[in-house]
From TrEMBL:
The keyword Transferase applies. PROSITE patterns: AA_TRANSFER_CLASS_1 (PS00105). The keyword Ribonucleoprotein does not apply. Gene3D superfamilies: Aspartate Aminotransferase, domain 1 (3.90.1150.10), Type I PLP-dependent aspartate aminotransferase-like (Major domain) (3.40.640.10). Residues 34-382 form the Aminotransferase class I/classII large domain. It comes from Entamoeba histolytica. This is Aspartate aminotransferase putative.
Amino acid sequence: MFSKYIEQECLGGTMIRRMSNLAHSLKAQKGNEKVIDLTLGNPQLPPPNAYINALKTIASTEEPLCHGYSSTNGDFEAREAIACIIDQFEEVQVTSEDIIMTSGCAGACNVFLKTILDPGDEVIIFSPYFVEYIFYIQNYGGIAIEVPTRFEDKWQINKQLLEQKLSNKTRCVIFNSPNNPTGISYTQESIDCILNIIREYSIKINRPIWVLNDAVYCRVVEPNIHIHSIFHYKYSAIAYSLSKDVSIPGERIGCLAVNPNIPNHNQIVNALATTNEILGFVHTNKLQMRIIPLIKYATVDINLYNKSRQLMCQCLDDLKIQYIRPEGTFFIFPKVEASLDEWEFCKTFAENGIVTVPGSGFGCKGFYRISVCQTPEYIQSIIPKFKEAFNKTVNQLYKKRTIT
């Protein structure tokens, strides 16, 4: 009935979706008010007024072919507006000619990997990583090679660990900064480490190794956090989406930004645009592409997410839970107490009313991910319940261990 791959790897869903489904099941059993779902990075703030007003304007404006096909790399005006956003954190100027509009960041990653991978090619990912990267890589016959980052290094890149995983089959390095699930942003030192090693190794194996930054959270950061450029390495690209910072993940508006200085630039852009078409995306949402030029730099109030994150961090501090303080995203990635089993902890925590995602779902056992993509008022309201459930969970597990 199913392919062997789907049957073996995908029928149960990703760890994030499994825990989200568990939250829904527990709510049905116990009541909505007794279960707090901190699993998904599904932004709860409404889109900014600029977006709502632009949507009304565009929806009421009829032009020839306004709902028809676009080019496979997307409307010029939308690409021009997105280029201005990318220019806010890239040191090399980006123009509309470097942009391919895609179906969210997920679509961008899939288009990129389909374009560059041959079966058996290896793609480096840094754990903890966004869980779907492995599936994206496997979609096109690639092999995901995990390079761990470590809590004691504050989740930054370790040069030796990266060098050990490179081979003549390495085709690409994907990283996610700011990072899901840890919330940290890679330092300039970490970015330079990746790019310098890849540059040297590309020369050694006599073929370029690509670097892709999944920068979906690039505007969901603390005020003092700088997103470091990758475009001083030629074979590089950025995946970006308006999903998180404009609060429209269901509209699937994303892009690939290709390094303007890449060799054979036009050929590569055309290849990516064609891949966008043959994967069945064709191009991204036409209505939304007409909205983008009208909103350009508009975002939700990012300070509200920063406040929510800070409130939860204070809660963790009160409970003396270990974690690396996040600098952006919707997430915090605390440690499970050393003597406790990660899955047993998350399962018991869920039964006590707080549903999170085990770190093994992100390739990093012994941790769990908390999502704080809600308003500060909501986060403040659940903190007493969080503390109560956490203490109850730890006491239950230690008592159980003592008995057994």
